[in-house]
Inverse folding.
């Protein structure tokens, strides 16, 4: 699970950096300085292969981890409820600071709130959890299809390119300003982010939580070799369907933003992105179970063991690169270089994570969150277990 979480961390970074590198990302208008065919191709590949996929994988692992935390509390003879409530409170505070100071596209606050929902239904049977997740995704997709029909019927929608371009210019200038200007830009982005979270990411994340909960109760990740046939089916189904859905999503986002077609594409993505995320996960799990598995696990698992530290460190370092906190390179780096920056940062995190865990049992932020969760000071020195 740590190796899979490390893989998901890379995908999250490759997506988040595009939003930190450009105030135009996700608006339907390309960064004015980078509109070449090559720049467009890089954006398409990011949206087809990565966008909206990896937060689902993270959400699945959150639901799976819930079952491990409950089992740990039972082994310790501790009450799970207060532990989990403290953990959610800690995540919420971290997420709020993260969203305001570093990156408005925070997911931690969403996980903290949805964690309470998961807590309320955690006794659900695995089969019921899977069915509920499927119904939830279908309902989200149906809602977007109805909205698309309403937009098409009324003739509304469409993108005011001039207005969006001006808003992007103003946001870029604010992000290049001093610390107060950067925080102000983040605060102005939060209402839009809250809308996306409430009507797109959060419901889909909850469905992934439920799937992770079902997998955790069934011990789905303890021995991937037991599920070889199922994992292979996920690959054969998830890659073609998920990539086709990703292509529809990318085309609508790039060429038809604000239209009824984009809403149809959102509905398609809601149903197909989980399949591509599952295909990615199946590929990693099958590789881990093969002859190259130990080597891959040795590379990815340390980063996965301290995901929270790495996730926040990514935002901190990228804020220093792209905002007025540091180099203020927002809008000044071509998409290909943005991707290369993410890969270089992740490579450094792989090395750092392995070095840190050779000396400490937890990442620094994990240690702090564990202290809040357990209401006591955890061990600081020593190798990870």
């Amino acid at each position: 699970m740590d190796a899979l979480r490390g893989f998901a961390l890379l995908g999250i970074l490759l997506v988040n950096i595009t939003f930190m590198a450009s105030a135009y990302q996700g608006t339907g208008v390309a960064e004015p300085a980078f509109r070449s065919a090559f720049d467009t191709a890089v954006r398409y590949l990011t949206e087809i292969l990565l966008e909206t996929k990896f937060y689902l994988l993270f959400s699945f692992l959150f639901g799976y981890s819930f079952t491990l935390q409950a089992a740990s509390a039972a082994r310790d003879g501790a009450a799970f409820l207060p532990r989990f409530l403290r953990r959610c409170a800690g995540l919420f505070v971290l997420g709020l600071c993260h969203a305001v100071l570093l990156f408005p596209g925070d997911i931690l606050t969403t996980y903290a709130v949805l964690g309470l929902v998961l807590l309320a239904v955690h006794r659900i049977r695995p089969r019921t959890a899977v069915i509920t997740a499927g119904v939830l995704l279908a309902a989200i997709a149906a809602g977007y299809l109805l909205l698309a029909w309403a937009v098409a019927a009324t003739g509304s929608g469409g993108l005011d390119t001039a207005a969006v371009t001006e808003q992007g210019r103003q946001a870029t200038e604010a992000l290049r300003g001093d610390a107060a200007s950067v925080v102000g830009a983040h605060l102005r982005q939060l209402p839009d982010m809250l809308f996306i979270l409430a009507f797109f990411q959060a419901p889909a994340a909850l469905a992934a939580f439920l799937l992770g909960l079902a997998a955790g109760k069934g011990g789905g990740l303890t021995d991937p070799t037991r599920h070889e046939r199922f994992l292979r089916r996920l690959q054969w189904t998830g890659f073609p369907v998920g990539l086709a859905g990703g292509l529809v999503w990318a085309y609508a986002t790039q060429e038809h933003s604000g239209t009824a077609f984009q809403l149809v594409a959102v509905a398609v993505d809601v149903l197909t992105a989980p399949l591509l995320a599952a295909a990615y996960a199946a590929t990693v799990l099958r590789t881990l179970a093969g002859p190259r598995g130990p080597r891959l696990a040795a590379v990815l698992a340390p980063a996965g063991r301290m995901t929270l530290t790495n996730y926040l460190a990514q935002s901190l370092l990228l804020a220093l690169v792209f905002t007025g906190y540091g180099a203020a390179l927002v809008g000044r780096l071509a998409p290909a270089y943005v991707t290369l920056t993410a890969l270089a940062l992740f490579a450094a995190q792989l090395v750092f994570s392995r070095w840190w865990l050779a000396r400490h049992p937890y990442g620094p932020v994990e240690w702090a969150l564990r202290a809040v969760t357990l209401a006591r000071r955890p061990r600081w020195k020593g190798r990870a277990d």
